[in-house]
Amino acid sequence: MICDCGGVLLVVSIEEPPAHLSKEKKLLYNRVCDVQCQTCGKIHYSQTYDDGTHINLVKTTKKI
Description:
- Helices cover 9% and strands 31% of the residues.
- The chain has one helix spanning 23-28; strands at 9-14, 32-37, 43-48, 62-63.
- It has a four-stranded antiparallel beta sheet, with no helix packed on it.
């Protein structure tokens, strides 16, 4: 992933799947992540992590 400034975006946090889901459903759950540009420092929130077919609403993520 590339930032508007041309820098590389790196994942800084990934959403935890909801605790109530079964192990199988957690594997199918489409998580989101937050990414940060290594050049300008801009953070892009709630980017698709597992799927990438649609834009998700902003969700709570856990620092990695």
